Amino acid sequence: MSELITYHLDDGIATLTLSNGKVNAISPDVIAAFNAALDQAVTDRAVVIITGQPGILSGGYDLKVMTAGPKEAVALVTAGSTLARRLLSHPFPVIVACPGHAVAKGAFLLLSADYRIGVEGPFSIGLNEVQIGMTMHHAGIELARDRLRRSAFHRSVICAEMFDPASAVDAGFLDQVVPAEQLHEAALSAARRLKKINMNAHKHTKLKVRKALLELLDDAIIRDQKHMG
To answer: Which CDD domains is this protein grouped with (predicted)?
Structure first.
């Protein structure tokens, strides 16, 4: 696939491992690799596991791109929001095995998946946009509003509160937390369980459940392009 995202298929389970420097920054090339890997997973009719390096899923968008200029920033955020929308409507189950920190776009990857497993430890999970001087984009707000518990949504989006893995379950970023050494097996166990569901029913039910959110995201992506551009 790509050195940025390795693709490993085994018994109907496709593991996509993000590997882009110390913080697994989400760059235009990473998003292109993500889309190529998801294309392959659809061809393989595989349940998807997305993971990162020990200690980190992703620290968010590549700041070099985000500070290169408005045009570059808008293009990257648009591509990232479009990827989130794609994950939310992916025809097969999507699991994120989060091996540590998940910040900003890293946390939005969690909010775009069907099932999320984190690891115990001193890790930060959350949306730090307003802390680093970025007004939250419309697509991010709508995604967080849909997937986070209401009280946590305001603390997260407006106040940039970061959560440890245990409180991230309560907030809505994660579904389960396991010891780090059990993450791989826990993700495979979840994938095997999800392999047993009816994929046609899964796909159509997912699209029904998320119909309103997907429509909001389509509108938000257009508004973000106008507002940020």
So the answer is: crotonase-like (cd06558)
